[in-house]
Amino acid sequence: MKLDNIESRYLPRERMTRAISERMVKSFLDLFVLSLLDNGGKHGYEIMRELKVKTGAQIGAGTLYPLLYELEERRLVAGEWMSPTRRSRRVYRITDQGEKYRDQSFQGLDRLLKSSSNSNH
Asked: Does domain 3-119 fall into CATH 1.10.10.10?
């Protein structure tokens, strides 16, 4: 599931305040990060920048890097050191296990949201 789809599905800007949007992103940050990695490998700063642009949420390095290390331990992402022309950067890619986890998690979130909206009517 691409982040653009996730953004429009779970973060409809016209109905959600910035505070609620940020809370949603921070609550499911692992899923948003995994979705960002769908488009190929990214280093931490790229992930922070894209999250800001696509969701409006400001995620700092002190939040993101521990999450990336945890996702790597759980084998949901794979990190690889790259050294283009200057300092080395760790580039993270989503694994097959990470794709499965992300898809199942969003399906569960969909079911939860549908059941809670049905019970309110």
From this structure: yes
86: left (phi over 0), alpha (psi -120 to 50) or beta: beta
Pairing of strands 42-43, 89-94: antiparallel
Closest CA to 106 of 18, 24, 15: 24
Asked if residue 27 lies in contact with residue 38, where contact means CB atoms within 8 angstroms, the answer is: no
In angstroms, what CA-CA distances link 118 with 62, 68, 81, 105, 121?
A: 38, 35, 47, 20, 6
Q: What predicted TM-score, i.e. pTM, was given to this entire model?
A: 0.80
More confident residue, 103 or 39: 103
Instruction: Write the DSSP symbol of residue 13.
Output: G
pLDDT in tens, 30-49: 999 999 999 899 999 999 99
**What is the torsional sign of CA 69, 61, 12, 2?**
negative
Tokens of 79: 């990190």
Q: Give the whole-angstrom CA distance, residue 90 versus residue 53.
A: 21
